[in-house]
Amino acid sequence: MVILGDILKRSKNNFDLIRLIAALMVVFGHSFVLFKNNGSYDPIQNIFHESSGTLAVYIFFFLSGIFISASFLNKKDHISFVRMRFFRIWPGLIICTIFTVLVIGILFTDLTFKQFFFNTDTWTYLISNISFYNSTSHRLPGLFVNNPYGSAVNGSLWTLPFEVKCYCLVFLFGVTGLLNKRIPMALFFLVLVYLLIFHSSYIDFFGGKLLLFFVAGMVAYLFNDILILDYRIALPAILICAFIYRTDFFTLGFYITLIYSTIVLSASRIFRKIKLPGDYSYGIYIYGFLIQQTLIHLFPDLSPYPGFFISLPIVFILSALSWHLIEKPAINYAKSPQVS
């Protein structure tokens, strides 16, 4: 019998592959929003009534809930936790934002260099997306204004402030000693479910459903010594979801099945045999939307499926560069004894 606690070591799982698939789902889902619609629709959304990108973000937040909780509880001090979180998020984001403004922005804006460079909105975009001040900024002057979804240069960034808020929540529960208390955390999760159903505006600050999935991951981690992972549970759960597909119980059943099947897959022998050269998921996530917007700017007649496949090599190259040149060195620096 395998439990969640058995697979939390990197050698016992392939959550990197799960995150990679989730990041690709985000890019795939955005293809149907960003590229010229020729009658194609996101097949995942047609079935589950939520886009493939949205479901992928739920998976990201659930896994973050598990591993960020583990990170806090296993760190020797609070400062090292904060340092690791900072160096995981910001170095890649800073370079992506600078690249967006000084490369993509300057090359493809409809304005002159002087008009673009000295426009206050240009620097508002740069500062807002790095600092998360006043959430994130989505527009750059004169950039992608004629695209089908011209209101956002890099729409994927909107979830990052909520991710950081969830980190802060872990820190708060951690320093107060509640993070490793099963019953209070489980009750907190149930309160969030109630608020989401009846008073969703109360948790909009933390991202609504995003917070719910993150806290579900936190609770899963606290019960990691008894949470059984077995495909013989996942497969019947999938069949039950198919049976209740058109009922009011489907959404809840589907969410539970989605996150449970995700962790079961991550521990499967097939997934563990697949070796990746790095964790490219974050780079794919932060560059995918931007590259797709650039492609539709250059080739206005691109439709969703060609646009998705054409964007993939470019996004993979940028994400690989981001991982090997920025993200991984930043993580290693944060772990190094010199900064401990």
What does this structure look like?
This protein is mainly α. It has one domain (2-339). The chain is built from 14 helices and two strands. A two-stranded antiparallel sheet has the order 1-2.
What brief labels describe this structure?
single chain, 340 residues, two-stranded antiparallel ribbon, globular, 14 helices, 67% helix, mainly alpha
Question: What is this structure's SSE topology?
Answer:
Elements: E1 2-3, H1 15-34, H2 43-48, H3 52-74, H4 78-108, H5 113-117, H6 120-131, H7 160-175, H8 182-198, H9 209-222, E2 228-229, H10 231-243, H11 250-266, H12 269-273, H13 281-298, H14 304-335
Antiparallel strand pairs: 1-2
Helix pairs in contact: 1-3, 1-13, 1-14, 3-7, 3-9, 4-6, 4-7, 4-13, 4-14, 7-9, 8-9, 10-11, 13-14
The helix/strand class is mainly alpha
* Separation, N- and C-terminal Cα atoms: 38 Å
Report the principal-axis shape.
globular
Helical region count?
Answer: 14
Largest sheet: 2 strands, antiparallel
**Strand elements, count:** 2
- Return the string of H and E elements: EHHHHHHHHHEHHHHH
Largest sheet strand order:
1-2
How much helix, percentage-wise, in residues? 55-70%
Low-confidence stretches: none
- Average pLDDT, rounded to a whole number, is 93
Name the beta content range.
under 5%
Task: Give the number of domains.
Answer: 1
The whole-angstrom Rg is: 21 Å
